Amino acid sequence: MRIISGLYKSRKIVAPKNLPVRPTTDMAKESLFNIINNLFYFDEISVLDLFAGTGNISYEFASRGSLNITCVDQDYGCIKFINQTAEAFDMPISTIKSDVFKFLERSNLQTNIIFADPPYSFTEEQFSKIPELVFQNNLLLKNGVLIIEHSKHTNLSNLKHYSYSKSYGGCVFSFFEIA
Protein backbone atom coordinates (compact mmCIF):
# COMPACT_ATOMS: atom_id res chain seq x y z
CA MET A 1 0.00 0.00 0.00
CA ARG A 2 1.10 3.56 -0.54
CA ILE A 3 0.18 6.99 0.74
CA ILE A 4 -1.58 8.89 -2.03
CA SER A 5 -1.07 12.53 -1.06
CA GLY A 6 0.28 14.98 1.48
CA LEU A 7 3.47 15.07 3.51
CA TYR A 8 4.21 11.35 3.02
CA LYS A 9 3.01 11.16 -0.61
CA SER A 10 4.25 8.07 -2.51
CA ARG A 11 5.65 6.40 0.62
CA LYS A 12 5.11 2.66 0.52
CA ILE A 13 4.07 0.85 3.66
CA VAL A 14 4.47 -2.90 3.74
CA ALA A 15 2.34 -4.69 6.30
CA PRO A 16 3.19 -8.13 7.65
CA LYS A 17 1.49 -10.87 5.65
CA ASN A 18 -0.01 -12.50 8.75
CA LEU A 19 -2.41 -9.63 9.56
CA PRO A 20 -6.12 -10.45 9.09
CA VAL A 21 -6.77 -7.50 6.77
CA ARG A 22 -8.04 -6.40 3.37
CA PRO A 23 -6.56 -2.92 2.77
CA THR A 24 -8.59 -0.41 0.79
CA THR A 25 -7.24 -0.21 -2.75
CA ASP A 26 -5.31 2.87 -3.84
CA MET A 27 -7.95 3.72 -6.47
CA ALA A 28 -10.82 3.54 -3.98
CA LYS A 29 -8.81 5.39 -1.32
CA GLU A 30 -7.92 8.21 -3.71
CA SER A 31 -11.57 8.59 -4.73
CA LEU A 32 -12.71 8.60 -1.09
CA PHE A 33 -10.21 11.28 -0.15
CA ASN A 34 -11.29 13.44 -3.09
CA ILE A 35 -14.82 13.39 -1.63
CA ILE A 36 -13.59 14.12 1.91
CA ASN A 37 -11.38 16.95 0.58
CA ASN A 38 -14.54 18.70 -0.65
CA LEU A 39 -16.23 18.38 2.76
CA PHE A 40 -13.48 19.19 5.28
CA TYR A 41 -10.14 20.87 5.85
CA PHE A 42 -7.91 17.98 6.90
CA ASP A 43 -5.94 20.04 9.43
CA GLU A 44 -9.17 20.93 11.28
CA ILE A 45 -10.71 17.51 11.78
CA SER A 46 -10.56 14.59 14.16
CA VAL A 47 -10.87 11.04 12.86
CA LEU A 48 -11.94 7.70 14.32
CA ASP A 49 -10.83 4.70 12.23
CA LEU A 50 -12.82 1.58 13.14
CA PHE A 51 -11.66 -1.91 12.13
CA ALA A 52 -8.41 -0.05 11.36
CA GLY A 53 -6.46 -3.09 10.11
CA THR A 54 -3.14 -1.89 8.70
CA GLY A 55 -3.96 1.76 9.44
CA ASN A 56 -4.01 2.52 5.71
CA ILE A 57 -6.80 5.13 5.95
CA SER A 58 -5.35 6.75 9.08
CA TYR A 59 -1.94 7.20 7.46
CA GLU A 60 -3.64 9.05 4.61
CA PHE A 61 -5.42 11.39 7.05
CA ALA A 62 -2.16 12.02 8.92
CA SER A 63 -0.24 12.67 5.70
CA ARG A 64 -2.84 15.27 4.73
CA GLY A 65 -2.52 17.12 8.05
CA SER A 66 -5.11 15.66 10.42
CA LEU A 67 -3.72 15.87 13.95
CA ASN A 68 -6.22 13.87 16.00
CA ILE A 69 -6.60 10.29 14.73
CA THR A 70 -7.71 7.29 16.75
CA CYS A 71 -7.57 3.71 15.42
CA VAL A 72 -9.61 0.88 16.91
CA ASP A 73 -8.99 -2.77 16.08
CA GLN A 74 -9.26 -5.96 18.10
CA ASP A 75 -6.20 -7.63 16.57
CA TYR A 76 -3.00 -7.15 18.57
CA GLY A 77 -0.82 -7.51 15.46
CA CYS A 78 -2.73 -4.72 13.67
CA ILE A 79 -2.44 -2.38 16.67
CA LYS A 80 1.27 -3.14 17.00
CA PHE A 81 1.86 -2.47 13.29
CA ILE A 82 -0.08 0.83 13.39
CA ASN A 83 1.87 1.97 16.45
CA GLN A 84 5.21 1.11 14.84
CA THR A 85 4.32 2.84 11.57
CA ALA A 86 2.91 5.94 13.27
CA GLU A 87 6.07 6.22 15.37
CA ALA A 88 8.38 5.72 12.38
CA PHE A 89 6.63 8.52 10.43
CA ASP A 90 5.93 10.67 13.52
CA MET A 91 2.19 10.59 12.84
CA PRO A 92 -0.39 11.77 15.41
CA ILE A 93 -2.20 8.43 15.62
CA SER A 94 -3.34 6.79 18.84
CA THR A 95 -4.61 3.22 19.02
CA ILE A 96 -7.14 1.31 21.07
CA LYS A 97 -7.17 -2.49 21.09
CA SER A 98 -10.83 -3.35 21.45
CA ASP A 99 -13.78 -5.04 19.86
CA VAL A 100 -15.29 -2.19 17.82
CA PHE A 101 -18.86 -2.78 19.01
CA LYS A 102 -17.82 -2.78 22.67
CA PHE A 103 -15.80 0.39 22.04
CA LEU A 104 -18.79 2.12 20.41
CA GLU A 105 -21.08 1.10 23.26
CA ARG A 106 -18.92 2.75 25.92
CA SER A 107 -17.14 5.54 24.04
CA ASN A 108 -17.84 9.24 24.41
CA LEU A 109 -15.17 10.25 21.87
CA GLN A 110 -16.66 12.71 19.38
CA THR A 111 -15.00 13.20 15.98
CA ASN A 112 -15.69 14.83 12.63
CA ILE A 113 -15.20 11.65 10.62
CA ILE A 114 -15.74 8.05 11.62
CA PHE A 115 -14.47 5.61 9.03
CA ALA A 116 -15.43 1.94 9.43
CA ASP A 117 -14.02 -0.85 7.29
CA PRO A 118 -15.54 -4.01 8.78
CA PRO A 119 -15.18 -7.44 7.19
CA TYR A 120 -17.11 -7.60 3.92
CA SER A 121 -18.66 -10.84 5.22
CA PHE A 122 -20.62 -8.99 7.93
CA THR A 123 -24.35 -9.62 8.03
CA GLU A 124 -26.81 -6.77 7.48
CA GLU A 125 -27.48 -6.84 11.22
CA GLN A 126 -23.77 -6.39 12.02
CA PHE A 127 -23.45 -3.55 9.51
CA SER A 128 -26.57 -1.83 10.87
CA LYS A 129 -25.20 -1.88 14.40
CA ILE A 130 -22.36 0.49 13.42
CA PRO A 131 -24.49 3.56 12.54
CA GLU A 132 -26.96 2.64 15.26
CA LEU A 133 -24.28 2.88 17.96
CA VAL A 134 -22.55 5.91 16.42
CA PHE A 135 -25.74 8.00 16.32
CA GLN A 136 -27.25 6.60 19.53
CA ASN A 137 -24.10 7.58 21.45
CA ASN A 138 -23.69 10.94 19.66
CA LEU A 139 -20.14 10.18 18.50
CA LEU A 140 -20.09 12.62 15.56
CA LEU A 141 -19.43 16.32 15.95
CA LYS A 142 -21.70 18.85 14.19
CA ASN A 143 -21.64 18.27 10.40
CA GLY A 144 -19.72 15.03 10.98
CA VAL A 145 -19.94 11.99 8.76
CA LEU A 146 -19.78 8.22 9.24
CA ILE A 147 -18.33 6.36 6.25
CA ILE A 148 -18.70 2.59 6.03
CA GLU A 149 -16.72 0.62 3.45
CA HIS A 150 -18.42 -2.54 2.17
CA SER A 151 -18.69 -4.73 -0.91
CA LYS A 152 -20.98 -4.02 -3.84
CA HIS A 153 -23.05 -7.01 -2.69
CA THR A 154 -24.13 -5.18 0.48
CA ASN A 155 -26.81 -2.49 0.42
CA LEU A 156 -26.95 -0.11 3.39
CA SER A 157 -29.36 2.45 1.89
CA ASN A 158 -32.22 1.32 4.12
CA LEU A 159 -30.36 2.17 7.35
CA LYS A 160 -31.22 5.21 9.44
CA HIS A 161 -29.06 8.31 8.76
CA TYR A 162 -27.97 6.94 5.35
CA SER A 163 -27.13 9.78 2.96
CA TYR A 164 -25.50 8.35 -0.20
CA SER A 165 -23.01 5.79 -1.56
CA LYS A 166 -20.12 5.87 -4.00
CA SER A 167 -18.87 2.72 -5.77
CA TYR A 168 -15.35 1.99 -6.97
CA GLY A 169 -14.97 -1.44 -8.51
CA GLY A 170 -16.11 -3.98 -5.92
CA CYS A 171 -15.78 -1.43 -3.10
CA VAL A 172 -18.59 0.87 -1.89
CA PHE A 173 -18.42 3.76 0.58
CA SER A 174 -21.74 4.53 2.26
CA PHE A 175 -22.07 7.91 3.97
CA PHE A 176 -24.24 8.55 7.02
CA GLU A 177 -25.04 11.95 8.47
CA ILE A 178 -27.20 13.57 11.11
CA ALA A 179 -30.40 14.62 9.35
From TrEMBL:
GO molecular function terms listed in the Swiss-Prot or TrEMBL record: methyltransferase activity; nucleic acid binding
InterPro entries, per the entry: DNA_methylase_N6_adenine_CS, RNA_MeTrfase_RsmD, SAM-dependent_MTases_sf
Top-level division of the source organism's lineage: Bacteria
Family annotation (SUPFAM superfamilies): S-adenosyl-L-methionine-dependent methyltransferases
CDD domains linked: AdoMet_MTases
GO terms for biological process, alphabetical: rRNA methylation
Record flagged with keyword Methyltransferase: yes
Alphabetically ordered keywords of this record: Methyltransferase, Transferase
Residue ranges crossing the lipid bilayer per the database entry: none
Entries under PANTHER family matching the protein: METHYLTRANSFERASE (PTHR43542:SF1)
Protein name, as recorded: 16S rRNA (Guanine(966)-N(2))-methyltransferase RsmD
Organism: Flavivirga eckloniae
